[in-house]
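This part of the workshop introduces the protein records we will be handling. To make this concrete, we reproduce a full record directly below.
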Amino acid sequence: MLANESVLDGYGHVSLRNPGNASHYFLSRSRAPALITSADILEYDLDSVPVEKGTAAGYIERFIHGEIYRTRPDVKSIVHCHCPDVIPFSTTPVPMRPLYHMAFFVGAGVPVFEIRDAAESSDMLIRTPALGKSLARTLANKSAVLMRGHGAVVAAPSLHLAVGEAYYLNLNARLQLQAMQLAGDKVVYLNPAEAEKATQDYERSWDAWKARLPR
């Protein structure tokens, strides 16, 4: 779904906490999101070790998921994307702010993870549990975190919300960039009360995205 809506490209991944075992989560094997089928889904523990031995190769950055699930019991689904429109906000002092009511969750703040603070040198990927823990600390109790020069992570209490927030995070970034080009620092954003009241469940968006999937 997110690949079809151009939020995920050949990279990125979506996970779901196991509803029957909160210490496990589901994530596909290492494959382009648009190509994934149910046969590609693997089960991991919170150390991001496959439950079944001898399974297909997993994503290098699966530690994003395991460490966030470990520190955030409220989170049931996680999206990691390389959303292009958020990248400028990860590399400049300009913070993401809620411009669009569908991105209400941005009102709580979107921190930026600086991998240099967690590792002296890296290839920008979350390859270890330690880096996953550092990312989870930066996310804290927020819905989203940007990764400098890399992308974003969205953590939500349901799969529908995680997918919706990933989509609208990228869209809000695009709209904010456009608005700033027009008005600079005179852009009018949602105030805290508006952002708090604009809560969405994204069910209608989900239905529309589902209807657009190739059959």
